[in-house]
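Service request form, structural biology core

Requester: graduate student, group of Dr. S.
Request type: structure prediction, single chain
Budget code: on file
Notes: please return the result as structure tokens.

Sequence provided:
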Amino acid sequence: MAYKISEECIACGTCIDECPVDAIAEGDIYVIDPDLCTDCGSCAEVCPVEAISIEE
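Core staff response, request fulfilled:
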């Protein structure tokens, strides 16, 4: 299961710097590519607004 970014995303860019496989794309709300995501959780750990969680 990949991580996902909710609408609470403030597009601060913190998660992009943490992703080891470059699975996060910029935008008004950032998006994680589920095919590239390795479920490492690095992005969720650094998100200042807790907008990243496991996709169910």
